[in-house]
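Morning. Coffee machine broken again, so started the prediction first thing and wrote up yesterday's gels while waiting. Chain of 132 residues, entered below exactly as on the submission form.
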Amino acid sequence: MAKKKPVQRTVQCYHCENRFDVSAKAMTVSCPACNRPLMVEDVVIKTAHAVRKLQTCGRIVIQKRGRVMADLVVGQEAIEVMGILETKQAKAGTVYIRPKARWRGDCHARSVVIEAGARVTEGHFVVPDTTL
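Came back before lunch.
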């Protein structure tokens, strides 16, 4: 009987930008390069959240009734906004700003998709940001 290989995925540390493999089921890990803790799982925001930092190696999804007020928002894979995002700086692989979403703040991303009906009230966008 053949053993199944453990499913892994590659993540990038949001502190030192080191890339490494983790189990697909991992929720948090320590970066092997800088030894700092990392959140690996996707974050789904359904209500209002006021935090200093919101960071993950996965995706951040702000649903229609969700609101994030933070100094720094990092979704290494993606940030998807259907609600409201107010930040000083956001960093992501891809940023999706859906219809009726509201965005306020700076953005550094490899790509950005802004759909008709979305509102971007202020911010400096750096696209594509090849340092991510």
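Residues 2 and 8 are 18 Å apart (CA to CA). Going to sketch it on the whiteboard this afternoon.
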